[in-house]
Design a protein that fits this description.
Layout lengths: L1 H31 L6 H17 L4 H22 L9 H23 L14 E4 L2 E4 H23 L1 H11 L1 H6 L4 H23 L11 H14 L4 H21 L11 H12 L14
Antiparallel strand pairs: 1-2
Length: 293
């Protein structure tokens, strides 16, 4: 039982990292209707900014806050200066632009900080607590609590605030939103800025658990996209639950299914996607799109 609980908690912690990035992808999609593949690179850049500030002597909490603020500004700037030229054109072109942006940001991080592994300061106390024989780190518990808080805040934003409803209106139909008097350009900047800030949280959560490198979010981005597909692009709660499900099932499959082991556990989320999408193409918690023709 202790081993099982350990695997579940560790899976929830790992899934929480995927969830942070997945929530940022959902936020951009809810604001613009696009999938932002550059989200992983922006998260890495944010982590490096926080790391550089700590190296200059800034307290960790101030470095993290400064990094999130810088990410908010960077996300808004990218939307205003770059993505706005493509958002009203072919969506496929805009997606390709975000992939190019991912490569560019990763290259910039490597150019400035190199590919050498860097040690990011721990965010949470280094102690552990024992529950039913399982040793749970404060880092794992803290990561889960942070993601739950963000999930609740995003759900409240999209469902219970005028800003969230306006962002969704712009994503659904930009022209109708503009005719209704909504400041479309400003809302798009806000959506990208918020998503970049959320990506910064993801990068800062990952950095202490792994070595800080330009490519540290590559695997997390793949799992985050899997969580988005499973949970549904319209549901922040859904993508978090899907990310947790992926993290837990990966751990359990690696430990208890002999032919999968730790070498093939990466296949687990994709098998899960295949099974779920046969019955629910919109994802576990997504809504069906109804198009009038």
């Amino acid at each position: 039982m202790g081993t099982f609980i350990q695997l579940v908690i560790d899976g929830l912690s790992t899934g929480s990292v995927y969830a942070a990035l997945a929530l940022a992808i959902v936020l951009v999609n809810q604001a613009t209707g696009l999938i932002n593949f550059a989200q992983g690179g922006m998260a890495v850049l944010s982590a490096y900014i926080a790391f550089a500030l700590t190296q200059l002597g800034a307290p960790l909490i101030l470095a993290i806050l400064a990094s999130i603020v810088a990410s908010l500004a960077l996300g808004a700037l990218i939307e205003w200066y770059l993505m706005r030229r493509f958002e009203r054109g072919d969506p496929d072109t805009a997606v390709v632009v975000t992939i190019g942006l991912l490569t560019l940001i990763t290259g910039i991080c490597a150019w400035i900080w190199s590919y050498d592994n860097q040690i990011f300061p721990p965010l949470f106390p280094t102690g552990t607590v024992t529950v039913l024989g399982a040793v749970l780190s404060f880092s794992s518990l803290g990561t889960i609590i942070v993601i739950v808080a963000i999930m609740v805040l995003l759900q409240v934003l999209f469902v219970g605030t005028k800003l969230g409803l306006a962002l969704r209106a712009v994503a659904i139909n930009t022209q109708s939103a503009a005719f209704s008097g909504l400041p479309v350009g400003r809302l798009l900047m806000v959506g990208w800025g918020l998503a970049a800030g959320l990506g910064a949280v993801a990068g800062i959560l990952v950095a202490p658990q792994l070595s800080l490198t330009p490519g540290m979010m590559d695997n997390a981005l793949v799992y985050a996209l899997a969580a988005v597909i499973l949970g549904g692009l319209s549901s922040p709660i859904g993508v978090v639950i899907a990310a947790w499900l992926i993290g837990v099932l990966e751990n359990l499959a690696a430990a208890y299914i002999g032919f999968i082991g730790y070498d093939l556990k990466i296949a687990v989320p994709f098998i899960l996607i295949f099974v779920v999408l046969i019955g629910r193409p919109q994802g576990l918690f997504g809504r069906k799109a109804v198009v009038r023709v």
